[in-house]
Write a structure and sequence with these properties.
The complex is a heterodimer of chains A (283) and B (136).
Chain A lengths: L9 E5 L4 E2 L3 H13 L4 E4 L13 E7 L15 E5 L5 H15 L13 E2 L9 H5 L5 E3 L5 E3 L11 H5 L5 E2 L15 H16 L4 H18 L3 H19 L3 H5 L4 H23 L1
Parallel strand pairs in A: 1-3, 1-4, 4-5
Antiparallel strand pairs in A: 2-4, 6-9, 7-8
Helix pairs in contact in A: 1-2, 6-7, 6-9
Chain B lengths: L5 E5 L9 H14 L3 E4 L2 H7 L3 H6 L4 E5 L2 H10 L9 E5 L5 H9 L29
Parallel strand pairs in B: 1-2, 1-3, 3-4
Helix pairs in contact in B: 1-5, 2-4
The chains are: A alpha/beta (283), B alpha/beta (136).
Bound molecules: iron/sulfur cluster (2 copies).
């Protein structure tokens, strides 16, 4: 199922009127545990504001007293379920939430590290270099020819390579270690550095993929002549490490690149998509 | 802590970009405050999913978001079709701020909007499938 088509579940920890508050440690542990398991949660206390109700099914956890919890008039009873958690240890609270998630067939969390490009449209000039560059179909264009990140889960974890080809430093990876790629402000010197990176890759043979292809072909012809497979592997790894340190591409991403022919085919496809988007934009 | 603006805490569960001690200190203080708040495991993941909760979290007024760089937070929400209102959003950046400084901002009654200024965002935040683009 595509990431964005999944069902959702709202978790509420209710400690408002007519409920017994949890003791401080238990509350902190329970909330920390649910966050670590990937859940979002509304804590209802006294004062402060929470997000309004919507169509998403909700599981309300609380230490409800007396006659138990009551829904406000007009609230959608079929979408709200209550769970009395008095005396439940944190792992059983987490288990109850997990059980509800499974029953509602809501999105499972933690199956994918959310690593993907985010475009700063204040900076983006819609040049399509990112679309032409990415071999994994992460980028696309909308019907008006504007660049979009369309398939976040196709992105290669920890690879910020496309941010290096963006001439405007408009591509962020919020989980990257350093700025401006992580979303920190872009300084003039960053912009010069980003531009330089593109120029360097141009000098190295037109585009980064032809460089990769050439190296891979050279490496392959060497492998065929070499008897010592360890030596060949070492050579390949040395070459990949060099590329990785030059372009900030994780070695495992380079190792998983398709065959040179497939790279060529995908690069041509991406280039055609980018050209079509630019043409649509001009028309 | 003040009852308004709303508070949204991002736990950045799937990466180590925020100092775990800082996150724990802030979350603990929120838990102990007695007031209502929203907490999410990972805004990045929600943005990629276009989670409808992002619409809900930004509805209804001023909000202080405890997360990372304001520029990243701004465009994560926009990419999910839930653009933040620049006049009503303050991002408390746990990549830079100490827990004490972050908690001071959360406790303050005033809002200091700090999303980077820029071009206008899409006008229709209800369209979850809509992606932001430069001319919108
Ligand atoms: S390379 Fe940068 S400026 Fe060009 S379309 Fe992609 S994000 Fe926009
Ligand atoms: S928005 Fe920032 S703090 Fe939150 S999950 Fe993404 S990188 Fe982490």
């Amino acid at each position: 199922m595509a990431l964005r088509d999944q069902t959702h579940l709202r978790i509420v920890l209710y400690e408002g009127a007519e409920a017994q508050p949890l003791d401080a440690d238990r509350r902190f542990q329970a909330i920390s545990r649910l966050l670590a398991q990937g859940y979002a949660l509304t804590r209802v206390g006294h004062g402060g504001r929470t997000a309004p109700a919507d169509d998403v099914p909700a599981l309300v956890l609380g230490q409800f007293g007396g006659a138990g919890p009551r829904l406000a008039a007009g609230a959608p009873a079929d979408r709200v379920r209550f769970r009395h958690i008095a005396g439940l240890p944190e792992d059983e609270i987490a288990g109850a939430v997990e059980g509800e998630r499974a029953e509602k067939k809501a999105a499972a969390h933690g199956t994918w590290k959310p690593w993907f490009p985010v475009i700063d449209y204040d900076r983006c000039t819609n040049c399509m270099q990112c679309l032409s560059f990415c071999l994994f179909g992460v980028y696309g264009a909308d019907h008006e020819g504007h660049i979009q990140v369309q398939s976040q889960d196709n992105c290669k974890t920890n690879c910020p390579a496309c941010s290096r080809v963006c001439p405007e430093a408009a591509i962020m990876f919020p989980k990257y270690k350093a700025g401006p790629i992580n979303g920190d402000l872009v300084k003039d010197e960053d912009l010069q550095r980003e531009k330089m990176k593109v120029d360097i890759s141009a000098l190295l043979g037109g585009d980064i993929y032809s460089m990769l292809r050439m190296r891979s072909e050279r490496a392959q012809s060497r492998f065929s002549k070499e008897r010592d497979s360890d030596k060949a592997l070492n050579e390949r790894q040395k070459c990949l490490v060099k590329l990785a340190s030059a372009g900030d591409i994780p070695p495992e991403v380079l190792m998983s690149l398709p065959s040179p022919e497939e790279i060529q085919r995908r690069a041509a496809e991406a280039k055609a998509k980018a050209e079509a988007a630019l043409a649509a934009q001009r028309s | 802590m003040s009852s308004c603006p709303g508070i949204l805490y991002c736990n950045c569960t799937y990466a180590q970009v925020l100092d775990p001690a800082a996150k724990a200190a802030v979350l603990r203080a929120l838990c102990d405050s007695g007031q209502s708040f929203e907490a999410v495991a990972d805004l990045c993941e929600m943005s990629a999913r276009k989670d409808p909760a992002l619409q809900r979290l930004t509805a209804g007024g001023d909000v202080k978001i405890v997360a990372c760089h304001p520029r990243a937070v701004k465009w994560l929400f926009a990419a999910a079709g839930a653009p933040l209102d620049p006049a009503r959003t303050e991002v408390v950046n746990l990549r830079d701020a100490t827990p004490a400084a972050a908690l001071e901002r959360l406790a303050a009654a005033d809002l200091r909007p700090n999303l980077p200024p820029g071009k206008a965002l899409p006008a229709d935040p209800a369209a979850t499938s809509a992606e932001p683009h430069p001319s919108a």
